[in-house]
Amino acid sequence: MAFTQRSEATRTAILEAARRLLASKGYEATTIRAVATEAGIDASMVMRYYGSKAGLFSAAIDLDLRLSDAATDSSLDELGAKLAQHFIARWEGWRSDTQSDEVILLLLRSASTNPIAAEQMRTIFQAQVLRVIGDALGNGPDTTRRAAMVATQVLGVALCRYVLELPPLVALSGPELVAMLTPVLQHYLTGNLDESLATSS
Predict the structure, then answer these.
(1) What is the per-residue burial (b if ≥16 Cβ within 10 Å, else e) of 162-174?
(2) How far is it between the farthest Cα atoms of the chain?
(3) φ/ψ of residue 25, rounded to 5
(4) CB of 106 within 8 A of CB of 61?
């Protein structure tokens, strides 16, 4: 039992050290040795638990969006609002049980240049966003398209507000951002997407 607890504590220390370095230095500059030094352990221990830098990176950016928290007991007509509130509250630390989410920012910063991060983003979309929206809408022909459009809005806001820090977006309060994001998400969830395409053509 004590060994298991020490092992888990070591894993946690490694992942926390890796996330701090990834956030401050990026993937290329984050080495196994640097992570080990940051965690106060030998580099061989990092290799023992995660096998390689790629394995460590994948574990460090594993992310549970907890979308079921937003979807549970939500009617379809209010799901857009619930999702908007959930994402903004998660990233900005509104809730006492949630910290501002550095992992998603690591992914956003890394996905355009790092194939591991890009694959992790695709996995998160497939396993979490698409699943929750599929549960709400059913697995109809439009579900994948609707889920993808929801993802573009949420990730676009995260990229522009927290990574690029576009001044007009940064200037919005969290509640203002939720209010603006809600009708857009709701449209992608329940609106007539084909009518939107016809209007724009």
Answers:
(1) beeeeeebeebee
(2) 65
(3) -115, -20
(4) yes
Q: What is the pLDDT along the chain (201 residues), one digit of tens a residue?
A: 455 767 889 999 999 999 888 878 878 888 999 999 999 999 999 999 999 998 998 888 877 888 887 777 778 999 999 999 998 988 887 655 554 567 777 788 788 788 888 888 888 888 888 999 999 998 888 999 999 999 999 989 988 998 889 999 999 999 999 999 999 999 999 999 887 555 555
Q: For tokens 């997407």, what's the residue?
A: 193
Q: How far is the CA of 138 from the CAs of 66, 151, 153, 190, 197, in angstroms?
A: 19, 17, 21, 12, 22
**127: Cβ contacts below 8 Å, ≥ 6 apart:** none
Q: Concatenated DSSP letters for 120-166?
A: HHHHHIIIIIHHHHHHHH-S-TTHHHHHHHHHHHHHHHHIIIIIS--
Q: Which of 93, 72, 94 is nearest to 83 (CA)?
A: 72
Domains and CATH numbers, the chain: 2-60 (1.10.10.60), 67-200 (1.10.357)
- Helix (DSSP H) and strand (DSSP E) numbers for the chain: 13, 0
